Amino acid sequence: MIFTRGTIITMNPSREIIEDGALVVTGDRIAAVGKTAELRSRYPDAEEVDVGGHIVMPGLIDTHVHLAQTMLRGVSEGKRLPDFSSWLFARIFPLQGSYSEADAAASARLGVLEMLKSGTTGFVECLLAERYGFDGIAEVCVTSGIRAALGKVAMAVSPETRDELGWHHGMWQTRESSIQQTLDAHDRWEGSRRRPAPGVVRLPLGRAGLRSVALRRGVGTGPGPRHGHHHPPRRAALGQRLR
After folding, report:
1. pLDDT tens digits for 71-96?
2. Kind of pairing between the strands at 17-26 and 29-35
């Protein structure tokens, strides 16, 4: 198949932009990029799609996604992000903590569709809670064809700290169960030679890295997807409580 009459943003080392460009796809690979006239002559039998001057470019990658929050837009209108407690613990977590697996899959499906519509073909998700149903969300990604690096929540928050912060019980797990479930998900989706979606869904935090994280009682210091917001005073206070 050949896509013709496009503006090709190549992202090659010279950042070349090809006007009246064409792109040839063979199977699931890009076979050639160049001027429309040149590639038409080289691939005369290819099925042609005229993109009418639209931009053709590599897919975007979103490195910080929370699929479960796709359906929660607008529930914290007027709350500034630095007001972290009232935004997250009072508004977002109670709703997320009440999700069923079907709710989480529906939210994930909407989020993935929006990403694909905007040209995003890969993303990193690092806050999948137990109640969402990890496998169901992974299957949404497989069905859509988007590439995903998925991260299951691993946490070390005591019941006392949970209650002090007002952390919704539906979003809380023990350290042991959260780590074990992450290892189990890794075995199903990443560790097996016959993993369900090679090259599409990845769970890149390896067992050794996760065990190292567990031993240090820290979460988010291993070589995989990590969740982070910049709130130094609150992070320091939370760190004191965890110790």
Report:
1. 988 877 766 665 667 777 888 888 89
2. antiparallel
